[in-house]
Structure formats: C-alpha cells, structure tokens
Protein: DUF3168 domain-containing protein
Amino acid sequence: MAPEMAVRAAALAALRGDAALDALLNGMFDGPPGKASAPYAILGDCIGADWGTKDAPGREVRLTLIVQDKGETGAALAEMLALADAAIGRITVPGWQVASARLLRSRIVRAREEGWRATVDYRVRVLG
Structure:
C-alpha cells in the first residue's frame, strides 16, 4: 500500500477507534459526507512528500482534519480537538515506523448559522 494511503488509513482507524471522541461525534468520515449533522469530523486532504534516507524509504504525510460542531460555545469543539490530537499521536502504520506525528496548525472559525468549525493540519513522518 502506498505510504500516503497507509498513513491515512491508520489515522482514520485511530480517530474512529477513540471511544471518547466517537461518543462526541455523529460520524467520522473519510472525505466529504453526503449528509451529516454536526457534530462530525472529516478526514480531508492527504499530501505526501519524500522523507527517505540513504538506506530507508520514507514519507512525510500531511493530513487535514475538519471538525464541525453546532454548540453555542467552543467547549465541545475544544474537547474533540484534544481527543483527536491524542489519537493522531498514537497512530501505528503497518509496514512503516512512525518517526513523528505532530499538529502543524489549526484554524477555528465561528459562523453564525453553522456553529464552530476547526480545520487542523497534522504532519506524520514514516520510515519503511
């Protein structure tokens, strides 16, 4: 399996496998859902770049997680983001050694009708 797809699958499994996060969401989707009601999360873009060494193949994979919440305050969104961060930090990728899994940046927006929306970018580096 291509490293980008392996990291994406591992991230999705880690996010879906977190019972506390799952309890707060109506769904964790791999790409845009046809229909979803907040709160939900989407694993979006996945961008790969070479991160190999002389003697080992490697990839740097950047993942985007989008979390949508209709709450009045950002408290529930903050809790979901903390759980997602922890889940990404625990990922294991079959066939690859995870060198690091880190948050790169996050953007949080409050829209009047849609509630709170966070877009979070993670960087996962793996060696094969």
User: Anything to note?
Assistant: The chain has one domain: 3-127. The beta strands are 28-30, 40-50, 58-69, 97-111, 115-127.
